[in-house]
Amino acid sequence: MRRSNLPVELNRFVGRASEQDELTRLIEEFRLVTVVGVGGVGKTRLALRTASAVQKRYADGVRLAELSALRDPELVAHALVEALGLTDHTLRGPREVLTEHLADLRLLLVVDGFEHLVDACAGLLRELLLSCPGLTVLAVGRRPLRVDGEAVLALAPMDEADAVALLTERAAESAERHPLGAPEPVRELCRRLDGIPLALELAAGRLPLLSVEQVLHRLDDRFRLLDGGRRGALPRHRTLRTAIGWSHELCTPEERLLWARLSVFAGPFDLEAVEYVCSGPGLPVERVLDVLGELLAQSLVAREESAAGPRYRLLDTVAAYGAEWLAALGDVERMRRRHRDWYMGLATWCELEWFSPRQAEVAAVTDVALPNLRAALELCLESAEDVPLAQHLAGTLWFYWAGCGRLSEGRHWLDRALGAFPALAEHEDARLKALWVLGYVAILQGDPTAAVAALHECGERAGATGNAVAQAYATHRMGCLALLSDDMPRAEELIGRALESYRELGELNSNVLMAQVELAMARAFQGDLEGAVALCVEVREVCEERGERWTRAYALYVLAYAALTDGEYARARELLAECVTIDHAFHDLVGLVLAIELLALVRAAEGDMREAAVLQGAAAPMWDSVGLPLFGSGHFGGPRALCERQAGEALGGEGYGAAFGEGRALSLDEAVERALSGRRDPAIRGQRGGAAAPRPFRSARATVAGHAEARRLPHR
C-alpha cells in the first residue's frame, strides 16, 4: 500500500497559514478532528494541505476516503476499505476488515464529504477509533460528527489579505490575463464575495472577460438576491449561492444546459460519457467538447488525472446548483436513465475487453467509473421493472468482483439485485447470469452454502428454459467448488463437462480458460502432472494470442509446479515472478498468496531455508484476507505444509520463528517486492539445493516430454 493516496495539488495553495497551524495543533492533540464550514469555504483544500504536511508523523501514511458520491449508507465501510487499498475475499464484513487492518497501524485517515451520511459515518468512525489506538481521523464536512472526543475547527471565510492574494493568484493563472486594476475595487470584490474561496475562484475565472468593476456591477445590481428567496439562509450561504448564480447567469444557454446535465454524474467522468449522456435537444454532440472547455475555463468543472486517463468532475456545491436547475427543467429522470444506459454499456465493453490486451486498462477504467456504476445500480433497483437491468449489470461486472479483488462489494450488489423483487420470467437470462456470478463470488469468499444454493437454482432454471450457456457456467462453478473442497474426481468430471459445453457453444473468454486451468489443477492433484502441463501450455498460448494476463498467471502457476518438480528451480522462480507481478497488479490475493507460498517452497528446494521462512511469513497475513487457507484444502495447502516442515527442521524452531516473523511484518507491497527481489543467502549461493525436488502434486506419471513443454515457455 502506498503511504498516501492524496491528490496532487494542481495550483498553488494560497493563504490560510493560521488555520493550517491550528488544524495541525488539533491533529496532534485529538484523534478525531472535524473541519466544518459552508460549501466552498475551502475545507477540503485546507485538510488535504495539512494532511500532506503532517504525513511523515504517521508511520503507515495518510489515506483519503471521498464519500460525497456515495448515496447508500451501507457502502460507507466499503468506501473506506477501498481508500485503504484493501482486498478481502472472506465473508467478514468490511467493518471487521477495517478494524483488523487498522488495529496496529499508525495512520491518518481523511474522510471527506460525509454530511449526507453522517449517522453511518459517525458510528463507523467511533467504532474504529475505539478499536484502533494508532488511528487519527481528519473529517471534512458541513456539520460535526458529534462523536465523543471530537475536536471541531469551524473554518471561516478568508480574511481580506488572503482573499485578495487568492483572487490575484487565480486571475494570474487565467488565460489572456488582464490587469486587475486599482486595489480598492479588488478588495471590494473580495468583501462582496465574503472571502469564500470557491466564489473568488469563480470570479477569477471571469476576469479574462470582465473587469473587476464589471463583476462588482453585476453582483450589486442584478444578482444580489439570487438566493431563490430563501430569507432564512445564512448570509454566507446566500453569498455563495449568489456567486454561483451569478456565474450561471453569465453562462451561455448551452453552458447552462451542460452544467445542469453534468450534475447527474457521481464522481469523475470522461469526455465520451459527457458526449453521450449530455448531448441532445439544445446541445448537439459536436458542441459538447467546446462547451465543456468553457465550463473548465470558468472553474466550474475541474480536470484531474487518473489511472485511466484524464477525467472531469463538478465540485459538490456546483453540482448541487446544477441539479436544482435540472429539476427545474423537469429532466432529471430522463438524464438519470441516459446516465444508467451509458454505464451499462461501459460495463459491457469492459467485460468484452477483459479478454484482450486491454485487461489492465479495463481494470483502471472500472475503478474510476465505480461511483457512477453504483449510481446506475441504485437507479435500476428503484423499481421492479428495472431490477433485471440491475441483475444484468451486477453479473456483467463479474470480472471486476472476482478479478480485481472486489468480492465484498460484488456480493452486496448481487444479493440486492437477486433479492429486490420477484423474478420476472421474461428477463430470466439476466437472473441466471447474476446467479452463477453470485455462486462464483460466494465460492471465492468461502461460503459454500450460498454458492451451492445460487448455482443449483441457476442450473435448474437454465435447464428448464434451455439456456445452455448459463447451465455450463453453473456446472463449471460447481466443479470449482469441488476443486476447493478436495473432491478431485468430481471436480474433474464437472469442469470437463463444462468445457465440453463451452466448446459446443463457441464460448471463449477468461472464464473458459480458467476452467481449463482448474481442470489442470484437478489432474495434477491426482498425479497426472503431464496432463496438467499440456492443458496449461495450451492456456498460455491462447493468453499470448489474446493478450490475457489474469488467467495466464494461474496457468504459469501450474507450470511453475512442473518446473519445481523437475528440479528447474530458476525456471520455477521466473514463472512465479510473473505470477506475482500479474496477481498484485489485479489485486488478486488468491493467486498472489499461492504464488508466494510456492516460491517459498522453491527457495527451500534451493537450500535457502531462511528466505523460504521469510516468504512463508509474508504470505501469512494475506490468508487473513483470503480466509481459511483455501478453505481448508489439503491439496492447495501442500506447498505451505511441506515448506514449513523443511525450513523448520533446517532452521530450528527459534530460527524459523524469527524469519517467519520478519516476513509477517512486511506490508503487502513489501512482501511482493521481497518475492521479486531474488534475494538469496550468500552462504548457499552456487549450491543446487539442500533438498530433493519436492513433489507436492504427487506427480508420479510426469514425464520428460511433459516437462519439456514447460521449458519451452518464453523467457521474459
Features of the shown structure:
about 725 residues, mainly alpha, five-stranded parallel β-sheet, two-stranded antiparallel ribbon, 32 helices, about 60% helix, about 5% strand, disordered C terminus
* Outline: globular
Instruction: Quote the average pLDDT.
Output: 86
**Beginning-to-end CA distance, first to last residue:** 26 Å
Which structural class should the secondary elements be placed in? mainly alpha
Beta-strand percentage range? 5-15%
Number of E-type strands: 7
Helical content (DSSP H or I, runs of 4+): 55-70%
Unreliable residue runs: 221-237, 686-690, 698-716
3D structure, described in words:
The protein is mostly helical and 716 residues long. Helix content is 62%, strand content 6%. The protein has 32 helices and seven strands. Strands 2-3-4-1-5 form a five-stranded parallel sheet, with helices on both faces. Helix 5 links the parallel strand 3 and strand 4. The C terminus is likely disordered.
Q: How would you summarize the topology of this molecule?
A:
Layout: H1 17-29, E1 32-36, H2 43-54, E2 62-66, H3 76-83, H4 94-102, E3 107-112, H5 118-131, E4 135-141, E5 150-154, H6 160-173, H7 183-192, H8 197-206, H9 212-221, H10 235-250, H11 253-262, H12 271-278, H13 288-297, E6 301-306, E7 309-314, H14 316-328, H15 332-353, H16 359-380, H17 387-396, H18 398-403, H19 407-419, H20 428-444, H21 448-465, H22 468-484, H23 488-505, H24 510-525, H25 529-546, H26 550-565, H27 569-585, H28 589-605, H29 609-626, H30 638-664, H31 668-676, H32 704-711
Parallel strand pairs: 1-4, 1-5, 2-3, 3-4
Antiparallel strand pairs: 6-7
Helix pairs in contact: 1-2, 3-4, 4-5, 6-7, 6-8, 7-9, 8-10, 11-13, 11-14, 12-15, 15-16, 16-17, 17-19, 17-20, 19-20, 20-21, 20-22, 21-22, 22-23, 23-24, 24-25, 24-26, 25-26, 25-32, 26-27, 26-28, 27-28, 27-31, 28-29, 28-30, 29-30, 29-31
